[in-house]
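Reviewers of the previous submission asked for a worked example of the structure-prediction workflow described in the proposal, so we include one complete record here. The input consisted solely of the amino acid sequence. No template or homolog information was supplied to the procedure at any stage.
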Amino acid sequence: MLLVPTPQLQLFPAPPPHKNRDKPVYLVDFATFEPPEEWRLTHDQVMEIMRLQGCFTEDSLAFQRRMLEQSGVGNATAWPPGILKCLQGHKADRSAEAARKESETVIYDCVRNVLKKTKIDPRTIDVLVVNCSLFSPTPSLCSMIINEFGMRTDVSSYNLSGMGCSAGVISVELVKNVLAAKPHSTALVVSTENLTQNLYHGNERGFLLQNTLFRCGGAALILSNKWTDAHRAQFKLMHCVRTQYVSEDSYGCVYEAEDAEQHRGVRLSKDIVKVAGRAMEKNFTSLGPFVLPVSEQVKTGFWMLVRYLAKKLGSTAKITPYVPDFKRGVDHFCIHAGGRGVIDGIEKNLQLTPRHVEASRYTLYTYGNTSSSSIWYEMDYVRKHMNLRSGHRVLQIAFGSGFKCNSAVWLCLNNTSTVKGGAASANGVANGHAAIKKEQ
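From that input alone, the workflow returned the following structure tokens.
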């Protein structure tokens, strides 16, 4: 389980001047991919797929079963058709065509839904950004979308790969910077991941975790800097903070490679715990001045000064660092559903309540770790079930390979969601929470 160390914030630097204060970026709306029922599997079916691969030892199968049961991932998460063929007596299809078909199914569904919700013609899209860490085909996923939806020939497209689970925030920041030079423009962002070619077939434990956590998912969002979109936008982007933590142990803590038997996979290092903690500490140090009230900043500065003076005077007394109360500046939290340990660690060290991490836990249980799109499943949960109102601030936090911790703060302008926890939805949420509590 990943327990992120408590952020020990330094004295907050003065916020940089807002160069684009007169150029706000609006989130008009977004849509997430809802996997079809035939894609969803129970834990027993997942383990049956692993057994049918014929490559895992009994010890590896037992380890994956144990990790699956402790992961916080529920009994109805999605795997792509290429892998599901195993349950029908066929060999898994790991071809490029099967992988592209997975991406087409997920991406086309998200994009169609968000274009329909926003009533936007694809030919009016000026900027397109797609992030998918592990699948980068030729032609690109951007080209796939442009051709499918008939976008203009002069659309500015960007295809991001290898950026990890925090690429969703990176895409938003990229659009923010591009729109600064493109007044009165509209952007489409797509965040997804691809599993068809990324099932690990070896027996090294550092690689096996990916088989128990990652699932199919995706999200598409429409961003705009048009003043005419302000009245109908769901959110306004307030701040976007990116942290690239650089050290000898950070670069390789999430690393795609081959094991000793040349089986390809993503290896998770034992150093990921401390690396994630340091990256989050640095990110929140930069984020603090933007979201915390002055009183919290003063308290943090005072206790940092006390610690500095104690060290300068040679005192051996242990002074517990003051952890700023981010709940005073943020109403809702969307913590990347990377695993149960990630959510547990941030909940503990930021002193959040179960209500604050409800969206993250439910997303992990219902969809699994969908990589960069997980924060959008959480955002969708917040607006449907968390009494989101105009003026509320929502913080998205995501970790990624490299190692990165990225965050974005959104201001709710309108919450037009018609789903407020109706009978079917409420039962689903209640059943999910009951199952999570039972596991815990």
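Confidence is low (pLDDT under 50) at residues 1-15, 421-428. We consider this example representative of the routine output the project will generate in years two and three.
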